[in-house]
Amino acid sequence: MMDAIVEKFKEQGANAEPIGGTIKFVLDDNPVYIDGTGEENVVSQDDKDADATITTTIETLTKLTKGELNPMMAVMGGKIKIKGDMGLAMKLQSLLK
Questions:
Q1: pLDDT tens per residue, range 58-88
Q2: CATH superfamily of 2-91
């Protein structure tokens, strides 16, 4: 399951503008690191410090990508926790479509 998620992020990241920072997703304790500081978004499973860290479950991420869950409601309901640069986290919508 994680391999499929990482591949999806790589695919979406390649087609999106660089996010201008680093973001780490922690999905059921598995890291997905997005480095958008260069010419393109580079996705890996490195567990490094990031400008913004988003913690959630694979189930919640799946619902978000399918449009079954509103991102703001998920954050307010505690299904998603964001630490760090909130503005950077908002740029993620381009990677989740």
A1: 999 999 889 999 888 999 999 999 999 999 9
A2: SCP2 sterol-binding domain (3.30.1050.10)
